[in-house]
UniProtKB/TrEMBL annotation:
Organism the protein comes from: Actinoplanes utahensis
Domain B12-binding intervals: 88-214
Protein name per UniProt: Cobalamin-binding protein
Gene Ontology molecular functions: cobalamin binding; metal ion binding; methionine synthase activity
Superkingdom of source: Bacteria
PANTHER family: METHIONINE SYNTHASE (PTHR45833:SF1)
Transmembrane domains' residue ranges: none
Keyword Metal-binding: yes
Listed InterPro entries: Cbl-bd_cap, Cobalamin-bd, Cobalamin-bd_sf, Met_Synthase/Corrinoid, Meth_synthase_dom
């Protein structure tokens, strides 16, 4: 997509201009630009840029959400103009329970429709039991499952396991499944795709896999969610409360925090705990260390020094001294800062 067009579209979403964004999409379609290219090279690429602007503290959460709403409207305008008769089969597409980033999955739904699939787009945060009910009611040929944040991996595992039991193959997608989709296979998915276009190609060529219910699960998938993970999840509220109680003594600057800063700090400690739990569940330290590396950059852009994050990690570690895997992950993360 031409850089001038991309810059113009970014300016429109930045201003929350739904009418302007949909008009631009319609103009591009009138010019003969393929709908797939508009989805991938304009709407999707701009959404990634929006996330980068938020991470750099150049945009607020509210502005990011407004821009996402504009992207959804632009995508809807495109969908109205590009109806394709279904010729391939039926696929259910859902975001994992607790996963609220629905726009990437919505873009995949449109790419699949353009390729001739009948798509049941179930939306963001679909509880596993409702997904399985839908499968029994509609009998799709496959399930596409989106997970953008690793903290949702335990629920993704539950959904994948249930889909396999129902005899429906699963193709997974989203950053939450790790680099190269490495966690998708461990959780039992039959396939993974890095991008929407890759998913379209995969589903059009070597899908579905034969004898779905006979395909063995990876050996290490039977050992997910051990004692340390269970303890961390059960004690999450206590871990956060204790860390907050001890914060001022460990980090004196916190005594001057206003109520918003206190709330943000509690949220951050909660995120740390959740990512540690996900890393323990899958048995992948990289989930946690990558999150800490990213968080360090995000907090620094907001004027929070690395010392504050390091202190938070120590406050959690001090409560988990009897859990060697968790403390090893925390030590590795502390060294990253």
């Amino acid at each position: 997509m031409d850089g001038t067009v991309a810059d113009y579209y970014l300016a429109l979403v930045s201003d929350g201009d739904e009418a302007g964004a949909t008009a631009l999409v319609n103009d591009l379609l009138d010019q003969g630009i393929a709908a797939q290219r508009i989805i991938v090279d304009l709407i999707s690429a701009t959404q990634r840029r929006v996330g980068e602007l938020w991470a750099a503290n150049e945009w607020s959460v509210a502005r990011e959400h407004a821009a996402t709403a504009v992207g959804e409207r632009a995508l809807a305008a495109l969908a109205v103009r590009t109806t394709v008769p279904p010729t391939r089969g039926r696929i259910a597409l859902a975001c994992v329970d607790g996963e609220w980033h629905g726009l990437p999955a919505r873009m995949l739904a449109e790419l699949l429709r353009l390729d001739g699939w009948r798509v049941d787009f179930l939306g963001a945060s679909v509880p596993g039991r409702h997904l399985i009910t839908h499968l029994h009611q509609t009998g799709p040929d496959a399930v596409a499952l989106s997970c953008m944040i690793p903290t949702r991996l335990p629920r993704a595992h539950a959904a994948i396991t249930a889909c396999r039991a129902a005899g429906v193959p699963v193709i997974a997608g989203g950053r939450g499944f790790g680099p190269g989709g490495r966690y998708a296979e461990r959780l039992g998915a039959h396939a993974w795709a890095a991008t929407g276009e890759e998913a379209v190609i995969r589903l059009a060529t070597d899908w579905p896999p034969p004898h779905v219910t006979d395909l063995p699960l990876p050996e290490d998938s039977f050992f997910l969610g051990d004692e340390e993970y269970t303890h961390l999840v059960r004690c999450r509220p206590q871990l956060i409360a204790t860390a907050m109680d001890r914060l001022a003594a460990a980090y004196p600057d916190a005594e001057r925090y206003n109520s918003n800063q206190v709330d943000s700090t509690a949220d951050d400690i909660g995120h740390i705990t959740d990512f540690l739990a996900a890393a323990l569940y899958v048995g992948e330290q990289q989930i946690f260390t990558d999150f800490i590396t990213w968080t360090t950059v995000v907090l620094e852009s907001r004027g929070v020094p690395p010392t504050a994050l390091r202190t938070g990690l120590h406050l959690i570690r001090d409560q988990l001294v009897d859990f060697p895997t968790a403390t090893a992950m925390l030590d590795a993360a502390i060294q990253r800062i």
